[in-house]
Design a protein that fits this description.
alpha/beta, four-stranded antiparallel β-sheet, globular
Length: about 210
Amino acid sequence: MITVSHLCKQFVQPDGRSIAAIDDVSFHVERGEVVGIIGPSGAGKSVLLRTLNLLEPPTSGSITIDGEEILAKSYEHNRLHRRMGMVFQSLNLFGHLSVLDNVTLAPIKVLGMNREEAEQLGMEMLRKVAMAERADSMTQHLSGGQKQRVAIARCLAMKPEIVLLDEPTSSLDPTMVGEVQGVIRQLAQEKLTMVIVTHEVQHRKES
């Protein structure tokens, strides 16, 4: 489903020097497969996810989705962002909105759903991550594990074919890690294609 060939990403420093965050990376992801990306801090793992989603334009290389080159000038980025969702390490939830409003905002604004349809979808996604009972809560009042599950539900509400997760358990205490790992294992069993940056050894083994 995803083929990455000889991908490179360089950042130019203020002194003019170039630093390679990604250097000649190639890999393939089958449909329904879960791929983990591991490595030391600063190795470029998060940058790799951001290039897959075209949030960071790569310096060189090729990325194809179902055989279609997404780096081609004619490729519309909005098409990719509808097919590929990302859960950021910083989550980026809207603290002034309720859990349900966080989940329904993109389907209404981007997919053009009416509010009733979006709320039905939103509740379905919140039930999937065991957060339906907190639908009316403000996200600023949630625990770290709960916020992470809401972020996953928000991503799933866009009905992506591919989900990218950047360190989904890195900021959680041990009691909350299991909550998020359980959601990811469930999605893996449903054959959702996922690329995950993680440091959790147990998570990698079980997923």
